Amino acid sequence: MKITSKGQVTIPIEIREQLGLLPQTEVVFKITGKELRLIKTKENPGRGRNIVERMRGKGTIKMTTDEIMELTRS
């Protein structure tokens, strides 16, 4: 793995999936001697909350929950 000219590194998908490192996941770097650790922060609201926050205010159709449920059941 190499660092790009912009100082970026791609974390392999297997590692991202195993550790739950999704887009917008907050991480910190910790240096111990000559070792660098990337640590997922505890403040990360999680994938579900991130999805909800991105979708908040995007709806354009005014429907009740019952109306939406009826549409999905037909």
Structure notes:
The chain has 3 helices and 2 strands, in the order αββαα. By secondary structure, the protein is of the alpha+beta class. It has one domain. Strands 1-2 form a two-stranded antiparallel ribbon. It is elongated, with a radius of gyration of 19 Å. It starts with 12 loop residues before the first helix and ends with a helix.
Topology:
Blueprint lengths: L12 H7 L7 E6 L2 E6 L6 H9 L9 H9 L1
Antiparallel strand pairs: 1-2
Topology as H/E string?
Answer: HEEHH
Helix percent reads: 25-40%
**Annotation field: number of helices:** 3
Shape: elongated
The unreliable regions are none
Return the average pLDDT rounded to an integer: 87
Number of strand segments: 2
Query: For the report, how would you describe the main beta sheet?
Result: 2 strands, antiparallel
Number of domains: 1
Keywords:
74 residues, alpha+beta, elongated
Give a brief description.
The chain is of the alpha+beta class. 34% of the residues lie in helices and 16% in strands.
